Each structure stands twice: as C-alpha cells, then as structure tokens.
Amino acid sequence: MAQLPSIRISGLGKPSETVAVIFAEKDVKLSDQAVDLIGGDAGFIQRAAKLSEFEGKKSTFLDVVMPEGTAVDRVIVAGLGEAEELEDKDWLNLGGELVGKLKALKIEKAELRFDAPKAGAAQLAAFAQGGFLRGYVFDAYKTTKKDEDEAAQDWALNLTIQCGFEKEAAEAWKEAEAVAGGVVLARELVDTPPNVLGPVEFAQKAADLGALGVETEILDEEQMEKLGMRALLGVGQGSRRPSRLAIMKWNGGKEGDTPLSFVGKGVVFDSGGISLKPGPGMDEMKGDMGGAAAVIGLMHALAARKAPVNAIGVLGLVENMPDGNAQRPGDIVTSMSGQTIEILNTDAEGRLVLADAIWYTQDRFKPRFIIDLATLTGACLVALGNHRAGLFSNDDELAERLFKAGEETEEKVWRMPLGKEYDKMIDTPNADMRNTGGSRFAGATTAAQFLKRFTNDTPWVHLDVAGTAMSSTKNAISQGWASGFGVRLLDKLVKDHYETR
C-alpha cells in the first residue's frame, strides 16, 4: 500500500512551503486570509482565473505560478462555489478531490489556509478525512512497475492545514483520522489476496486490536463444535484452513451498560463449494468477507477515538471450498439455536455463518441491538447496484437512524421488505428451514428472513453490502476496488445516538 497522506493542523501564520492552497468562492471571491497566506495581490490570481475561465465553482481547481517576490512559488486555488451551502459530506469530497489534484500535479508538500463561511472544526476534519482516504492505494504486491506507476508509488503528500481554531480542529481531526484508519484497515483486508488472508490470519488481525485496548477472544473449531455451531462449521468443512469465530470487545462506556453489537460475514474466499460458482469473476470472491472487514474497521475506529460506548464485534471466519469432505446439497445441519437447516445450495453459505454468529451474539451478550453486515446476495446488487446497501430490519427506529447516517456519510442504504409471505419461502418439509428461497425471486429478502429466525427478537438490522463493499463505484474519496463501506456509516450511528459522555 502506498504511503497515506500526512496531514497536520496548525494555527495561522506565514507559509512554510513553496506551494499554497487557498479557497475561492463563486466568481473567484478570495478571503483576506487567503490573500495574506500567498503574500501577493489577489488581482494576479483573478487575472489568471479569467484567462483560464476558472469561476470558483465547487470541485474545480486552478494552478497558478506566482510572480517573483510573492511569498510562495505556486498557488492551487480550490473552488467552493456557494461556500455557505456546503454540508459536511461536501467538505469530505472536496478534501478527496484536492488530494487527487495534488497527486496528479505530483505536489508532495503544500500548505492550505482553511477559511470559509460557516466552516469550523467539524468541516475541517471532514475535509482532512476525505483527503486522507483518497490517498489509499493497494499496491503491496507489485514488484515491477511502469515509470508512471513508480512515480505514483513514491508520491507521498505532506499537507499542513492552517486555521484560526487550531485546538478545536486538532481534536476533531484526531477523531476523524481514527475513523479513517478503520476504513483503511477494512479496505486492506478486502484487497488482500485469499492465499494470504485465511480465517486464522483474519482472526489475528482482530487480536491485533489489543494494541488499541480492544479485548479479543478467538474460538477454534473444537470450541465451536461444543457450542453446536454446525451451520458455520459446515461451510468451512471443505477447506483445509480451519474456521474461526473472533469476538472483539470495546469497553469505552459505563460499566454495566448494555453493549451494541455488530456481526460480520467473513468468508475469506467463496468458491461456492459443491455448488461451484462460474469461473469468470470468481477471483472477486476474496472480497466475500467485506462485512467482517467493516466490523473490524468499526472496532478499530471506536477504540482509536476512545468512543464512550460499550461495543461487541463478532466475526464468523470461514473458507468455502469443494473437496471430498465438503458440505453437500441435501445435507441437513443443526445450528447453535437448535433449529435445523436443509442445504439446497452450498453457495448460499453466508447466511449459515451468520446464523450461528448472530445467535451466539444475542445469547451471550444480550445486546441493545445487533447489526450484521454481509456481502450476502447478488440479488441485492441487481436491485440496488453499487450505490446503496440493502437494509432489512425488525426495528423502525434503528432502521431510520441508519438511513439518516447513510445520507450524511454518503454510505447510503435503502430499506427493503420483510414479511410472512417471504418467510414462507424458506420453509421446507424436511427441516425447520432451507437455506434458499427456492427460486431466483426476492433472493435478498429471503436471505434476510432466514437471518431473522436467529435474532431471537433482538432489535436487528441486516445490511447486504454485496454491491458496496467491493468492486465499488469510484468516487472522490475511494479510487480502489475495496471501499471500506460501513465503517463511517456505523461510526456515525454510534456517535450520534449511543455514546455516553
């Protein structure tokens, strides 16, 4: 992975770098602070803007070489448009766009004067977070590179942001950087090749959060067998790599407070098992642990920013492979809950992993709620594309809070239906339920109905992130294959509604 940008907050002062970044509102309106930073006549910038037909519109940039005698050699003007109308998510995207521009220009050191109407510490932190996330590149396994690749790999940005509220901004950026670190961790895990990241290695990543104060337990196959987790274990029995259950605890809230819980599907590689997937595109199934990646990224974020909340993260970690010991279509397994499941398709495996992980979580921790995340169904991708995750819930308030958090973070969700008519689709005469809906219709909903049977009426949300966690749409803050979707969404939910200060 390329080096991430280094972002430092400072008070107002003269520039210490030769490249300055300033903001311009619509019609190239420059603030007095911006003019003070560059130490030159605003008219020079405005004449250059006129020649370049730069009007200060949002997300546009102007690169100006300054005349001799100016305090800086080069000025990058970032357009804000109508600055007073910008929301936090706009500042997030602007930060990403600026870092993308600086990278394209191969600028490695710059100083920015952060001054805009109605923009304070929260907006500066969002801006910095967007820039930090834009710098992520996964190239750890490239040993030979073209000249342009080498230049990109060697590029590392040092950005100083000057503002008139240094203390507040530094505190806000510290929290935002902690969350960004969780996003980067999730991205790295999804991007890592499956021969490197197996269930055991993934569980070790959870254990590594001990450095941040997260308590971790790792259950092996023998321990899970004693608990009756035969749904989860059945998925992994065709692999030579042993399955694991990782339990992470962040105790940042008051002692005795009921914890929040998050459960992630961690199928480190999904071949489909005996119900083998088609060859084209199977390589992307290294990302079938995107839900677990989001959960570990969230736990990193909560611990790194010392969130005042008690939270549990549970990861069901398996590999789904075909061999002589693999689970077969027609098998019937008994889950930890005691409910029996007829296996009709071994490629509908994620819900089996989550069935035991969800039951374990509600049974042991009695949490305030359970939110599970999983790259669960192609049907959800068909319905919503790469732009929103599917949301299924038995709790209207929790669902609405998540929807609002998604709109504010731009990790968007859309609520999908549950109902008795869908629940009947997973009934079978041979067991308590089957692991498919019996047809290609309503696949995302029948998968969610399956999971609902293991919640034991705990307030619950299922997020199907099949279209958003991997092979996601490129945007201002994410230019790679893995997005880290879910970390910022869930951190926003927790921060806005469940922390005790």
From TrEMBL:
Q: Which residues bind Mn(2+) 2 per the record?
A: 265, 270, 288, 349
Which InterPro entries does the annotation name? Leucine_aapep/pepB, Macro_dom-like, Peptidase_M17_C, Peptidase_M17_leu_NH2_pept, Peptidase_M17_N
The note on cofactor binding and number reads: Binds 2 manganese ions per subunit.
Intracellular or extracellular location(s): Cytoplasm
What Pfam families does UniProt report for this protein, alphabetically? Answer: Peptidase_M17 (PF00883), Peptidase_M17_N (PF02789)
Q: Which GO terms describe its cellular component?
A: cytoplasm
Q: Which domain of life is it from?
A: Bacteria
Which part of the chain is the Cytosol aminopeptidase domain?
345-352
Query: Can you say what this protein is called?
Result: Probable cytosol aminopeptidase
Q: Which HAMAP family does the protein's record reference?
A: Cytosol_peptidase_M17
Family, per entry: Belongs to the peptidase M17 family.
Keyword line? Aminopeptidase, Cytoplasm, Hydrolase, Manganese, Metal-binding, Protease
UniProt GO BP: proteolysis
The stretch of residues making up the signal peptide is none
Q: Which reaction does it catalyse?
A: Release of an N-terminal amino acid, preferentially leucine, but not glutamic or aspartic acids; Release of an N-terminal amino acid, Xaa-|-Yaa-, in which Xaa is preferably Leu, but may be other amino acids including Pro although not Arg or Lys, and Yaa may be Pro. Amino acid amides and methyl esters are also readily hydrolyzed, but rates on arylamides are exceedingly low
Q: Where is the active site?
A: 277, 351
Q: Principal place where this protein is found? A: cytoplasm
Entry binding sites for Mn(2+) 1: 270, 347, 349
This entry's Enzyme Commission designation comes to 3.4.11.1, 3.4.11.10
Q: What does this protein do?
A: Presumably involved in the processing and regular turnover of intracellular proteins. Catalyzes the removal of unsubstituted N-terminal amino acids from various peptides.
Q: Which cofactor does it need?
A: Mn(2+)
Phylogenetic placement of the source organism: Bacteria, Pseudomonadati, Pseudomonadota, Alphaproteobacteria, Hyphomicrobiales
